[in-house]
Design a protein that fits this description.
This protein is α+β, with helices and mostly antiparallel strands and 82 residues long. It has a single domain, classed as Phosphoribosylformylglycinamidine synthase subunit PurS (Mth169, Chain: A), CATH 3.30.1280. 34% of the residues lie in helices and 27% in strands. The chain has helices spanning 16-27, 51-66, and strands at 2-9, 40-45, 72-79. The longest helix has 16 residues, at 51-66. The protein is elongated.
Amino acid sequence: MLAKIHVTYKKGVLDTQGQAVHHALTALGYDEVKQVKVGKYMEVHIEGVSEEEAKVRVREMCEKLLANTVIESYRYTLSATE
């Protein structure tokens, strides 16, 4: 199974990297860009558990290590691997 995990800052948390990228893009002439958010993307390959157990384990991974849930939110999808 493949877990695709996206971690981003929660609404209201200052995203300094996103602001820097936004500033750079507008300096390059991309005035249509109004906001940039920078986050993290991870792929975790999981074997030997059911889909329901994989969901539980991925949530645990996110809560314990992959996301700082005080300032970040996460979402994930699970798909079968070949």
